[in-house]
Write a structure and sequence with these properties.
There is one protein chain. With 118 residues, this protein is mainly α. It is 38% helix and 0% strand. The structure holds heme C (4 copies).
Length: 118
Amino acid sequence: MIVSNKILSALFGAGLAALALSPAAMAEPQELAEMHAEMDGCEACHADGEPSADGAYEFEQCQSCHGTLAEMDAVHKPHDGNLVCADCHAPHSSNVGDKPGCDSCHDDGRTAESALKQ
Ligand code: HEC
Ligand code: HEC
Ligand code: HEC
Ligand code: HEC
């Protein structure tokens, strides 16, 4: 994964580097949006904290911290130009640690593991 300066400053700003090492932080499932909001508020993803109508602004924010789909691994790269991050990592309906599946869109039994091995 691409670790940008923006990510590093978000991590250190929130002391999350220390949190990530603590077993207590892993006990409760935490919503993905909540985890980000604890670091940078709702404004991390939403302009003025308000969701956009089409999700384009939010998609840009994901990529400004994590890098673009095209720059990521073999699970992500093939979706450049056809999906946004939230199609797989819905921030308000998935948790930290979730690994999105493939079978909601592909019916040939592919998995993240099989894609990463190729
Ligand atoms: C990690 C980025 C991220 C953060 C942080 C985040 N959101 Fe969102 N939010 C999204 C995305 C992407 C969508 C649209 C897709 C979806 O519904 O998951 C969304 C949708 C919404 C919606 C539309 C209704 C819905 O649930 O679909 C509301 C309201 C909302 N967010 C409020 C908030 C509030 C309030 C906060 C701060 C507590 C927040 N969001 C933090 C990414 C984020
Ligand atoms: C096609 C579904 C899909 C899309 C679209 C997608 N992801 Fe993922 N993502 C996954 C899967 C599956 C994994 C776990 C396997 C892996 O590491 O590739 C993952 C892993 C990750 C991880 C590492 C989480 C961990 O376990 O450490 C991050 C960060 C991430 N994705 C961010 C993003 C961002 C940012 C975008 C948009 C630019 C995005 N993803 C779009 C499916 C997706
Ligand atoms: C302000 C910077 C920032 C923005 C914007 C942002 N992220 Fe993150 N994200 C982080 C940091 C920091 C972490 C924790 C370290 C890591 O796992 O890379 C993280 C972690 C993640 C993880 C891994 C969670 C796990 O399971 O460990 C996923 C998936 C993810 N983000 C997806 C998204 C998506 C999708 C969006 C846009 C809707 C988004 N992020 C927007 C900074 C950001
Ligand atoms: C939200 C729907 C969605 C999910 C979930 C999804 N994909 Fe895709 N995937 C697409 C779309 C749309 C395309 C581009 C059109 C096409 O080629 O079918 C695509 C294309 C691909 C391609 C390139 C073309 C091909 O069919 O080989 C690969 C490789 C791929 N996906 C792997 C995965 C893997 C691995 C997962 C699970 C981690 C996954 N996808 C999850 C929607 C999805």
